[in-house]
Amino acid sequence: MEEKVGKFFESVGTFFSGGDTLPWCDSVVIAGCEAEVAEAQEHQTDEFVKECIMRLSWTLVHSRRPEDVQRGIAMLEASVTENSNSPLQAREKLYLLAVGYYRSGDFSRSREFVEQCLILAPDWRQALTLKKALEDRITRDGVIGIGIAATAVGLIAGGIAAAVSRKK
């Protein structure tokens, strides 16, 4: 019985905390990728520079800092229009854009990119996991919104009832 109660409280906690299973990246890793890009731009081929920029974009959209996420989104949007993308690179960029928009709270935009990604790779587990996280988050936010609205209506109705009872 105790195990069931523990699982219940864990699921409620996950519901309200968001249960984000996407990895996070810290500023040390981001700084390392920035240094790698700078060095690659001086001494390496364009293809290697693009790989380094892709790694930096990954770290940025997985950052806890909103300004890093926005910078990662901007880098990816600039590179997604390049015609030299292979289907694999296009899929990766679309997925990272979906992650970036998810992390920035723009769930509808994130959903658009994850859907485009799933068109290219319908069985891709990471994209399917992100889609599920998006759906869960949207559902959770809707439930919380309904709860807030119901509370507000209850408070207003209670205030009106109290005002009417005082006049009598």
UniProtKB/TrEMBL annotation:
GO cellular component entries: mitochondrial outer membrane; peroxisomal membrane
Keywords: Membrane, Mitochondrion, Mitochondrion outer membrane, Peroxisome biogenesis, Transmembrane, Transmembrane helix
Location(s) in or outside the cell: Mitochondrion outer membrane; Peroxisome membrane
Topological category with respect to the lipid bilayer: Single-pass membrane protein
InterPro entries given in the database record: Fis1, Fis1_cytosol, Fis1_TPR_C, Fis1_TPR_N, TPR-like_helical_dom_sf
CDD domains: Fis1 (cd12212)
Residue intervals passing through the bilayer: 142-164
Primary localization class, coarse: mitochondrion
PANTHER family: MITOCHONDRIAL FISSION 1 PROTEIN B (PTHR13247:SF13), TETRATRICOPEPTIDE REPEAT PROTEIN 11 TPR REPEAT PROTEIN 11 (PTHR13247)
Chain's role: Component of the peroxisomal and mitochondrial division machineries. Plays a role in promoting the fission of mitochondria and peroxisomes.
Domain remark from Swiss-Prot or TrEMBL: The C-terminus is necessary for mitochondrial or peroxisomal targeting, while the N-terminus is necessary for mitochondrial or peroxisomal fission.
Family: Belongs to the FIS1 family.
Full protein name: Mitochondrial fission 1 protein
Organism per entry: Ficus carica (Common fig)
